[in-house]
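A common beginner's mistake is to predict each chain separately and then try to dock the pieces by hand. The better habit, illustrated here, is to supply every component at once so that their relative placement is modeled jointly.
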Amino acid sequence: MDNKIKKVDLIFEKVDYLDILEKSFKRTQDEIILDVIDSGLRGRGGAGFPTGLKWKFAKNEEADQKYVICNADEGEPGTFKDREILTQSPEKVLAGMALCGMATGASKGYIYLRGEYNFLLPSLSATINKFHEDLKELNFDFTIEINSGSGAYVCGEETALMESMEGKRGEPRNKPPFPTSSGYLGKPTSINNVETLVFALMIAKEGPTKFKEMGTFDSRGSKVFSVSGDTPTAGIFELELGMSLENFVNEFGDGDTKAVQIGGAAGFCVSRKDFKDTVIGFEGIPTGGSMMLFNSTRSMFNILKDYLEFFEEESCGQCTPCRVGCQQLLKGIEAVKKGVKPPAYLDELQKLSETMKLASKCGLGQSAPNPFNSIINNFREEIIY
Amino acid sequence: MSKYKVSLKINNLPVSVDEGTTILEAARQLNFKIPTLCHHDDLCVAGNCRVCVVEQEGSRALPAACATPVSEGMEIRTNSMKVRQARKNIIELLLSEHNADCTKCFKSGYCELQEAANEYRTGDHVYLDVRSQNEVDISSPSIEKDDSKCIRCQRCVRTCTQLQSVSALAVTHKGKDMKISTFLDKPMNDVVCTNCGQCINRCPTASLVERNYIDQVFDAIYDPKKFVVVQTAPATRVAISEEFGLGPNRSTGKLVSALRRLGFDKVLDTDFTADLTIMEEGTELLTRLKEALVDGKDVALPMMTSCSPGWIKFQEHIFPDMLDNLSTCKSPQQMFGPLAKTYYAEKINKNPAEMVVVSIMPCTAKKYEADRPEMRGSGYKDVDFVLTTRELGRMIHQAGIEFDKLDDEKYDSILGESTGAAVIFGATGGVMEAALRTAYEIVTGREVPFANLNIKPVRGMEGIKEAAVKIKDVKPEWSFLEGVELKTAIAHGLTNAKKLMEKVRDGSANYHFIEVMACPSGCIGGGGQPIPTNMEIRKKRAAAIYEEDEKMAVRKSHENPEITAIYESFLHNPGGHRSHDLLHTHYSPKKRY
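With all components supplied together, the output reads:
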């Protein structure tokens, strides 16, 4: 493995997006989709579903109406890259949506914008208006609307997001059916992260090869990281995937990094002893972008408690393992800390976290135990004493 | 359209089922029971309690059997080590947030969480107590809501929105604070709730139960100064047997014996006032038709039945512009009350102030109805206490009466005589059938033109039914009805009622007379009936109701000799002055939240 991290500039690169669209519209839907499949692009929201396959499924559905949704409900603690993309390259996001619309046969797109990002509304709306004019010139029928979120973390989950868009309470749906067959208003819907859509546009521009050459077999291309915590260089960085955490820490750490939380509150905590063997990517630890560095002044108990308080509040509450499980994990570590429960109670809670992972209805409850398990496994003594 | 078949294996046994079948249903076909809590046969799928998780070969997560459709080649295990551990943990989690005061709980023995816990629990409390502290909402005279027992399965919410279109109950807040609540957390009595009690029938725990008045009724019975009479609604006599594990059954005679053994001074019958309702409501309909057709008056048609207090409150909230269409007749329960405290009190020489009228109802809305300020026609509270079929079951158990061993007994007289037309009030379409049997005969002098008086088009479980009866060769005084096709419609369950009302309001449907019952399948599916409920059970109750009708000597309300007698000696005319004072009422619009 190379010992340097590689900075990339695809997402924020200024491009002639109309030219990319114009050329793409002359190709067939299948050609566009095959390029995306071939590039190996996987969803940049964190779950990592192959984007091209998602588009193919949506394209293959017969329906009088299909939708494209841009998931801009960037709620994962420690993630702030979509905000930056929407600020710096909004027209590339819109063009990515139009490309997806063309490829899947959707004439309507929505941006589900995180409620806290409403300050972007005026500029984003203006960009959309101009984009609609541009599309008229290209003679392509596709319109985009913004749908403002209301602050629930769970609405970043794609089906909860659609419930919310439909005016209902934001609760995840049962899957199947998946959104590509029955999504927004029951119609085939491709829902993609902000960053994913921009990469898809760049793949249309450059062809799949350039993208594919970056990264590793499982994690092609580059990714925008949101770096925060105990670091002298917090901010947004586009990096090639597949680097080791050690290289990452060497670049961004403050020299005293004891742990990195990869993937936000729902992600994994890696301790110093594992930096060397940890790959950042789908074969190692995947991330929607959040990289939080902690130095030795930090209490891992407090960090875990913060995460669990977050989940206890942000679980939608509909399914038992997540609603009650999150409360039990939080109350449980507090009880162990206070000596109300013996240290062995943590083992009981780890069994519970297994149930949460296996039996929760959506990704929230399935991933809420990640920080718990990884912090207990690496810093058990900090939780107990 | 024939459905595709899907082949899969459950616990290594092959099974072939229709496409779209859930894993839960497929497992049932192989006689594997998978425990469920949020699932209910009457409701849409939720998949949120997760108790029904199963292991699927090749899948990391455990899918919920109730919410996952089968797919070709699927291999499912319903009781693997993983499944068992997850299920046990989930039940423990539910118990950690549930106020498990089982020994004091009204639902003990009927609680689905208790049943699941009994099956899976090892006995040790693993998790910390995360119960919420809350006040029990007893604002409603019908429904008691205790959030500390709620397991957030949302069956009540689905019942309230999907089955009833009332939406008084909704999910509010999120995470640990997520709960089932009302508009702005208002008390149950201050919101759009119709008190239908369907949520109670489907609540797996005791988070929603009826306000029970068992002690008050026993106190009245024990009080030597009180003269306690009891009336029994049609639908209770085919369902009370379920409280004793006997299934839906015709048990009128045993019901009467049990009530007498409980110590009621007189055991009387709401069926009598059901017959009376037909006389009053039938006359009202014919009067409205005459006013419309002959006098050219602007009267509200179609006329709509008013026996179902859940339906009445629904109209007051949701369609306040259509209150004039409701018949002004009180429900049979509320006709019984004032007659008991006037006519009957006089006949048996009792002071109405010392009388206590108790009614046994399949209904929770009847508790609210009895409390309405209009319901004091006798000068006293007409009906003092309303008990559900379930509460009566509990009383019989408490009194040590062995229900199945009782001999059949007959109702006391008077106010105890009834007809087959009255008993069918208990099933959807029954009021319509009873009304048609009488009205047709009054107008034409002949019986309704249906074999054996059974008006089949108005029966059955279809959500909205329509029937038209051509009126021919009428008696001279009804000549204005000659050749008229009397158009009727029947809806049961408030979602169906709402659909029907919207059609009536926008003019796309034209009827003369509409029967609505708030509860699915009518009173036999009432919110006070034994738990559990499902379509199969309700069909059996309906079958028992119609059997009861067929066995009755008299099957037309106007031929009930006691009805003839009460009009001769007391009421004089249907819709007359005394009827108006005692048997009719009015409605008022209510806010929609």
